[in-house]
Amino acid sequence: MKSWIRRLLPFTQWPRPSARSLRKDAFAGITVGLVLIPQAIAYATLAGMPPVTGLYAALLPSIVGILWGSSALLAVGPVALTSLLTYAALHPLAEPESGQWVMLAIWLALYAGLIQFLLGAFRLGVIANFISNAVITGFINAAALIILLSQLPALLGLQSQDFSTALASLQHHLANADATWLWSLAFGLGSIILLWLQKRFAPRLPGVLVVCVVGIAVSALFGYQALGGNVVGLIPAGLPAPQWPPSLTLEQHRALLPAAVIIALISFTEAMASARTLPNPDGRLWNQNQELVGQGLAKITSGLSGAFPVSGSFSRSALNLYVGATSGWSALFAALCTLVCLLFFTSYLQHLPRAVLAAIIIVPVLNLIQPKAFLHLFRTSRDDGVVAVATFIATLIAVPYLHWGVLTGFLLAMLFFLYRRAHPRLIELGLDPAGTLRDRSLNGLPPIAPGVLSLRLDASLTYITAPLMDRFIRERLQKETDLRVILICASAVNDMDATGADTLSQLHQDLQRRGIRLALSGVKKQVRDRLAHIGLLQRLGDDNLFVNNREAIDALAAPPREHD
């Protein structure tokens, strides 16, 4: 009963806070909250949503995410990658910031959240592992580059999002610089410089907040909006009113589902990477299924709040740890900052230049572009390197349909995986001077004894690998007519399916007709059980079953006994 309650209400297991820990969590939470507010507005614009929905996504979803998640320090809310995926999914379907766009984003959050919740509830979190690190590396680097390019027009004070039009606009402004454009350029480039200086020389300061306050003050003081500058504009005060969104057509639902699956998987791998690297100060172990439940409920809450999909933020989680958070209470204090902002301070945000928001998005995204990650993958595994590069290229080509990039990488990774499983290491073993079995051809070793063929399959014996082993043995039988024993060293065989068992049984019958023994060594329990089930274990007999290779060597290296 207690375990059921613990799973249903995991926050009941939080340790009782002390006055000292609450002070530390309050400081950490307020610090993160002051960074979260401008980031939430920036990521809302990246998702094509009205700025106020970023604050909605930062309020209740962050509370639900920490209460039902398993990581005490994971900051849940708007993040760059999920916002980009939202924009990419909705771009072909509606106009950004329109009522139709908002409605589709809400349904996207509901679908992605429901997928994550069901995966966690049914303990299927392992499915997220099917998206390999190579796919994630390629996709994140491509997505970061797409985000960077998408924000350059706003950063440089250009109105158009189209690259060619923006380039023409930039050339026009360079030739005919006006005051409005120069102010926009100053806000954008100045914000990037300030954020870089803050990160380098004062990492404990909430640099994002400082840049926003300075930008708002300068914009209001010099009348940037009156000059025609692009600002956030009026943000309505008040709390979100949770409600079920209007219904969609069947075609719209169908169009959202692929993107919802991609967001559910990619955002969880992003959150998972953060949660794995963050220690739990309260001693709880991180649980991917519980985290899926928490992340799923947070997305559903975001949708019901009128906002877009959220996820776990690595940068805010790292800041949470850096400033001394001790428990999930810090996330509650961060949400309190968002609550106060929504109630009393939204009017101060209307003068915030969009160029500043672009800088807030660009600076952390620059850290996601890591060319060295591709080199590392190629050095470790050429297959993974190819998958990462293919995912990167496919994602860039598929804009705005970014899910095709992930799908390309996933399918290619599966093909490589199946190819490796279809071509396992199958070697003949020889006896080295130390008395152990090693690769005979690689080390130039003799066989265990004349007439003995010993081999090892470094894979499970399945419908894919069993024919390879069977052909290997039969080819050797044709070449070496004096073989008297076939020894299969099965210590690396972790499993056996019906095809593998039938192949081994048929091989035993054929060898028996030729007067050749079939022996096995190091057979694991699950394989022994399968062999016993089909009766092959009994037919082989104890004389042909060895506990380990040493026992097989001692028995088979002896000369054959003469029969009367």
Automatic annotation (TrEMBL):
It is a multi-pass membrane protein. PROSITE patterns: STAS (PS50801). It is found in: Membrane. Residues 450-556 form the STAS domain. It holds the Pfam family Sulfate_transp. PANTHER family: SULFATE TRANSPORTER (PTHR11814). This is High affinity sulfate transporter. It comes from Alcanivorax xiamenensis.
